[in-house]
Design a protein that fits this description.
With 87 residues, the protein is an all-alpha fold. It contains 4 helices and no strands. It has one domain: Four Helix Bundle (Hemerythrin (Met), subunit A). Helix 1 runs antiparallel to helix 4. 30% of the residues are buried.
Length: 87
């Protein structure tokens, strides 16, 4: 049971970090957005030990777009990650 709670808590923290990354992008803070994305990936990787989940793939895509200064595509990837997390 505690493992389920841990995974649920980690998913909630990851969702918060994803939304924080979106705000950072809207405020033109790409470094802060990347930091939030990395933390979100870390939250999703640890409890579930699934490195290829749809959420992580979308987050990695968002990070790639941030590094290339494509804010619109990064936000779209974050939206997809949030949608998958809430599915």
């Amino acid at each position: 049971m505690s493992q389920v709670l841990t995974a649920s808590t980690a998913q909630a923290r990851a969702g918060t970090l994803m939304r924080q990354a979106r705000v950072e992008l809207f405020c033109d803070h790409p470094d802060s957005a990347l930091a939030a994305i990395r933390k979100a990936v870390g939250e999703l990787e640890l409890p579930q030990e699934t490195l290829d989940s749809e959420e992580i793939v979308a987050l990695e895509r968002a990070a790639w777009h941030v590094r290339r200064h494509d804010t619109r595509a990064a936000v779209a990837a974050l939206d997809l990650a949030i949608e998958r997390l809430n599915a």
